[in-house]
Amino acid sequence: MEREWLFSLIPLAIGVVFLGFGVYGLRRASALRRTGVVAEGRIVRHDTSRGDEGARYVHPVAAWTTRDGRACEHASRFGRGAVGGGFGVGSPVMVRYDPQDPRRFAIQGWDTRKADLLFTVLGAVLTAGTSTVLLVRVLTL
User: Fold this and answer.
1) Is 81 exposed, middle or buried (0-12, 13-18, 19+ CB in 10 A)?
2) Where is average pLDDT lowest: 40-49, 74-83, 86-95?
3) What does the radius of gyration of the chain's CA atoms come to, in whole angstroms?
4) Nearest CA-CA partner of 88 in 40, 24, 31, 44
5) More confident residue, 52 or 118
6) Residue 121 has pLDDT above 90, yes or no
7) Model-level pTM?
């Protein structure tokens, strides 16, 4: 058997990692929808981060008070290139948070499932495609 087939493990590994990230994000969002508590919050500032190629991402920081009176202030895990209409500093937002761990939260209207779905689909396609190619290659040897 030749060693070239080892290179096909690269897209398989990438696919598995993407699939893992996507499924984790979808499960986290699903858990928040099932057991999360909704609170009214406010955007207090925007944190910015830079991507590998220098792209700038804006993460709104929401502040809210939990049912038991704890003050929370956390940045969204999703960043975008620009801030949309209702997410400027001082804007009221609805926050769905985990009452056991308020650091796990989602800003309604900002945190979407699209990124998690994209990772899941790409990961599934890469994993299934590479697995099929490897299986055909092994069976035809």
Assistant:
1) exposed
2) 74-83
3) 20
4) 44
5) 118
6) yes
7) 0.73
- The DSSP result for the chain, as a single string, is --GGGGGGHHHHHHHHHHHHHHHHHHHHHHHHHHH-EEEEEEEEEEEEEE-TTS-EEEEEEEEEE-TTS-EEEEE-S--BSS--GGGSTT-EEEEEE-SS-TTSEEETTTS-SHHHHHHHHHHHHHHHHHHHHHHHHHHT-
Identify whether the C-beta of residue 72 lies closer than 8 Å to the C-beta of residue 102.
yes
Distance CA 118, CA 123 (A): 8
Distance between CA atoms of 19 and 22, rounded to whole angstroms? 5
Q: Is the pLDDT of residue 73 over 70?
A: yes
